[in-house]
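Thought: the user wants the 3D structure for the chain below. I'll pass the sequence to the structure tool as-is, report back what it returns, then summarize two notable features.
Action: structure_tool
Action Input:
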Amino acid sequence: MAVYKRTYKTYSGPRTVPWSRFLILTRYSYSRLFQSKFIVLFLSACLFYPVGCLGFIYFSHNQELLALLSLGSAKFPAVDGRFFYTFCKIQGTLAYLLVALVGPGLISPDLANGAFPLYFSRPFSRTEYVAGKMALLVFLLSLITWVPGLVLYSVQGGLEGWDWTRDNLWLGGAIFFGLLLWIVILSLIALACSAWVKWKIAAGALVLAIFFAGAGFGAAVNNVLRTQYGGLISLNKIIYTIWGGLFRYDLGAELSLGQAWFVLALTCAICVWLLAKRIRPIEVIK
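Observation:
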């Protein structure tokens, strides 16, 4: 439109509330994601184990059914810290497989198509951009991790009674905090890989390599050098050590809690630094 005609007008329609502006990216990413039938099927498969755990909790408290099956005197595993630690390990593994599928496609298309100037020419900060992309991963991973975990805890508390719930409040906090911590780590790693690798398939392979190759290399270091510090390279061992502390379950871990927390904080700092270096409104090509 020619400027001299002066027929243009400023936008006078409704505006998005500034604090929720980052959710625009989440909403559109969510709508594109669930067009994939494979993702929907994988999410459904991730709920099989929680449903099985729910059935076990109900079955172990149904005395009439146990008597009918002549299992009244059978001793079932206790629903305690060890039970929920195992739950976290299984659902945590499924969570990073899901991240490897979903995460690489969040930033790499914007980077490959030069979309950053379009985003940041609007009242939209880099922090809001990362938060919008990360919110999708947090939502998806929550559906298969701490949400069913707290459902299992609530059902167990309802069947056992108030005394059990009161004495095991720490267990509910461990489920929520431990799995939320894992979600944040996975999301930051996936976004950092997506920001630095433009090819989505390669970014997904890099996410898997960080965990599988890290665990293998750490084990090789331990065997060759006769040390235990190779576990510092394995994020799996790091998070297992932290979960063991939260659930008061002695793993005989090679690492101390202090070492595990330090490596986890360092990993988060590196991922944030990589995102800050890569996500810019302009790109200088030499």
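Final Answer: Structure generated. The chain is about 70% helix and 0% strand. Residues 19-56+75-278 form one domain.
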